[in-house]
Design goal:
308 residues, alpha/beta, 10 helices
Length: 308
């Protein structure tokens, strides 16, 4: 079970990547606890959606420190959460990619946070970030370079910071996962993905870990946020289908190689070594100890939403 932590005071939190699966879960969690939440949106429709979740939208360019500084100052936020990297860590997401400008964006945010008087920064990264690229995963080297540059930029900035390395994120909030469920129900052929094991984390658990970091504020630490159970995309998609009473995805013929996992996901399949102790350095443990428990929970959430 996730450790219950009682905040000593209300926080004002500024979140990039607010529209990601974990971003939505975090907004709901913080807003329900009475915190003031601001989330970066890319359009008016996204802004309206964030308001419905409990956040006030902001519209800065994530690569421009001046715009970020102005936005953060306007909110008077003292806590910053960089969830923008998690846009490439949802599942499944055919067009996902790990941006080579990750380091640039992280540096801009760290600079803006300092200039705006922020007191703490949480930068989210990926569970594979400490892996070593070998001859089998040479295509992943640029990914690792960008990811590590972003982590260094966050930790080297003037604002006390921590890095949370998240497993592949999934949750009830994922529009991509909802689309996959519709495709399976329609009987469309789905590539089952890779057999390589990787780390996972349920969005609600990731949100709880981020809240714990904001409250405890470990500085200069890199912390693994995973459920601690390695599994392959094939196993994930098979259970996702079977739990809904649908046929498990089978490997398609060669003329239909489309996979719900992107080329970037494929490039890092060899990088998913065994995760470090989940939540080491935080008073946090995952409530959902495997993707099976998480999928069961999100299906309940979906049914409840449909009933309403």
């Amino acid at each position: 079970m996730t450790a219950e932590i009682t905040p000593v005071q209300t926080m004002t939190v500024f979140i990039t990547g607010a529209m990601t699966t974990v971003g939505q879960a975090l907004i709901r969690r913080l807003a329900s606890a009475g915190h003031h939440v601001y989330g970066v949106a890319a359009s008016a429709s996204e802004g309206n959606y964030l308001r419905a979740l409990g956040a006030t939208p902001a519209y800065p360019d994530l690569y421009r420190a001046g715009e970020l500084r102005s936005a953060i100052q306007g909110t008077q936020a003292k806590c910053i959460v960089n969830l923008a990297p998690q846009a490439a860590n949802d599942v499944p997401q055919v067009n996902a990619d790990w941006d080579a400008r990750l380091g640039e964006a992280a540096a801009a945010l760290a600079q803006a946070a300092a200039q705006a008087g922020a007191e703490y920064l949480v930068h989210t990264s990926y569970a594979f970030a400490d892996a070593q690229a070998d001859e089998h995963s040479a295509a992943a080297r640029p990914v690792l370079k960008a990811v590590r540059a972003a982590e260094r930029a966050a930790l080297a900035g003037p604002v006390p910071a921590s890095v949370l390395r998240l497993g592949t994120v999934y949750g009830a909030e994922s529009a991509a996962l909802q689309a996959l469920a519709k495709a399976l129900r329609a009987g469309r052929m789905i590539h089952p993905g890779s057999h390589e094991a990787r780390a996972w984390v349920y969005a609600a658990d990731a949100a709880a870990a981020i809240e714990a970091a904001l409250i405890e504020r470990p500085a200069g630490k890199t912390i693994s946020v995973t459920d601690g159970a390695l599994a392959s995309p094939v196993q994930f998609l098979q259970y996702f289908a079977e739990a809904q009473g649908l046929a498990a995805p089978a490997r398609p013929p060669l003329f239909m190689p489309r996979s719900p996992f992107s080329a970037a996901h494929a490039a890092i399949t060899h990088l998913h070594a065994a995760p470090a102790s989940a939540g080491e350095g935080l008073h946090w443990q995952p409530r959902f100890a495997s993707f099976r428990q998480g999928i069961d929970d999100l299906l309940i959430s979906w049914r409840a939403a449909e009933a309403m």
